Amino acid sequence: MQLTRVPLSLSVVWHGKTVATDQPRYPKHREWWLDVIATAPSPVCIASFLDQRGSVSWSLMPGPAATENRLTANFFPHDWVGSDTVQIAFGGQRLTVSDDSLKRDPRSSVHVAVPSVAETGVLIEIAKIGTLGITLSILAVAEQDTERRRLDRWRIKPLFQASLPAMVVPLTSGHQSGARDE
């Protein structure tokens, strides 16, 4: 049994803001985030994936299925003056890396790979940071292929388990997040 295919429209927009922490000691700097918007003609649920060289973490976005879903990929420096450490946060997962160009302006390091049109039931690459081996992806799942759980949670119905790629099978478990090494 295969997951239902529903057309999906995708768009992304970079946003930035100027921040100042502990002035005058630290200079003002820009922090950046990437908004991802997935729109479908019928309600869908979204799972996010953060892959760093085969070490994959995933999370099911809480809430009811919707025709418009928004996720954010944040790129926030830890210590603007003292290090090149940046926290990448995407769909409930966090990863810390050290990269000067990512700290200064992630738009130059992050290759946004979002297709404008996709479909549910297929892993969709959102962005890549090639120098660090990082990929941000989503999986949209048609509402009829999901099972509602308590506390605004969901999972892919277990009857789809046999037809899912290994990376997606844990989304049938009922756990709302997890990690695995490929």
How many separate helices?
1
Separation of the first and last Cα atoms: 24 Å
Structural class label = mainly beta
Report helical residue fraction: under 10%
Largest sheet: 11 strands, antiparallel
Description:
With 182 residues, the chain is mainly beta. It has one domain (7-181). It contains 1 helix and 13 strands, in the order E-E-E-E-E-E-H-E-E-E-E-E-E-E. The protein has one helix spanning 100-104; strands at residues 7-19, 29-52, 55-60, 66-77, 85-90, 93-98, 111-112, 117-119, 123-129, 134-142, 146-149, 153-156, 177-181. Strands 1, 2, 3, 4, 5, 6, 7, 8, 9, 10 and 13 form an 11-stranded antiparallel beta sheet that branches.
Write the layout of secondary structure elements.
Layout: E1 7-19, E2 29-52, E3 55-60, E4 66-77, E5 85-90, E6 93-98, H1 100-104, E7 111-112, E8 117-119, E9 123-129, E10 134-142, E11 146-149, E12 153-156, E13 177-181
Antiparallel strand pairs: 1-2, 1-8, 2-3, 2-4, 2-10, 3-13, 4-5, 5-6, 7-9, 9-10, 11-12
Produce a short descriptive summary.
It contains 1 helix and 13 strands, in the order E-E-E-E-E-E-H-E-E-E-E-E-E-E. The strands form 2 sheets. Strands 1, 2, 3, 4, 5, 6, 7, 8, 9, 10 and 13 form an 11-stranded antiparallel beta sheet that branches. Strands 11-12 form a two-stranded antiparallel ribbon.
